[in-house]
Write a structure and sequence with these properties.
By secondary structure, the protein is mainly α. It has three helices and no strands. It starts with 6 loop residues before the first helix and ends with a helix. This is Protein kish.
């Protein structure tokens, strides 16, 4: 089943994209400078990860627990 049709998998993919984009922006800031177009989506995901990092961390933790135990 595709991750787009399963809500649990969709949330996992969204959290992984946010965390990955934030990490890449911290390590290689020139990769995500473009704010429009295709790379603009990843810039926005990195911005969400930067500004809402406590909430993203809680989301990643709860998603990890739910994957392991459920």
């Amino acid at each position: 089943m595709s991750a787009l049709f399963n809500f649990h998998s969709f949330l996992t993919v969204v959290l992984l994209v946010i965390c990955t984009c934030t990490f890449l922006k911290m390590q290689f800031p020139t990769i995500l400078e473009q704010k429009t177009g295709f790379r603009g989506f990843f810039w926005k995901a990195a911005r969400i990860g930067e500004r809402l990092s406590p909430w993203v961390a809680v989301g990643c933790l709860s998603m990890g627990v739910s994957i392991i135990f459920f």
